[in-house]
Design a protein that fits this description.
The protein has 114 residues and is mostly beta strands. 0% of the residues lie in helices and 51% in strands. It is built from no helices and eleven strands. The strands form two sheets. Strands 2, 4, 5, 6, 9, 10 and 11 form a seven-stranded mixed sheet that branches. The protein is globular and about 40 Å long.
């Protein structure tokens, strides 16, 4: 059973930056795909970004150029650096791990006021 714990959420003004981190345990980390989804009130969960086992990264168009995902296989962590934040980035951010099955963290709140 893989367990994921996110940290780093908070309140940030528009145009500001925030970093999220996700620590994984209980799984084999390096061959897994890791990433982030987010969910805003009243909306479906939205895929944001992912990093594959060979380091390939992908981003949703809405965050491309502003967000950067990175992974540290030695520490079993995946991070998300978010720059130029906008009110529409406000959401609960969930990290995920996918290999034979998909696992989710409990989420961390990011608030960007209008």
């Amino acid at each position: 059973q893989v367990q994921l714990v996110e940290s780093g959420g908070g309140l940030v003004q528009p145009g500001g930056s925030l970093g999220l981190s996700c620590a994984a345990s209980g799984g084999v980390f390096s061959p897994a795909t890791l990433g982030w989804y987010r969910q805003s009130p009243g909306k479906e969960r939205e895929w944001v970004t992912s990093t594959g086992p060979y380091g390939r990264t992908m981003y949703a168009d809405s965050v491309k150029g502003r967000f950067t995902i990175s992974r540290d296989n030695a520490k079993n962590t995946v991070s998300l650096q978010m720059n130029s934040l906008r009110p529409e980035d406000k959401a609960v951010y969930y990290c995920y791990y996918r290999r034979d099955a998909q696992y989710w963290g409990r989420g961390t709140q990011v608030t960007v006021p209008s």
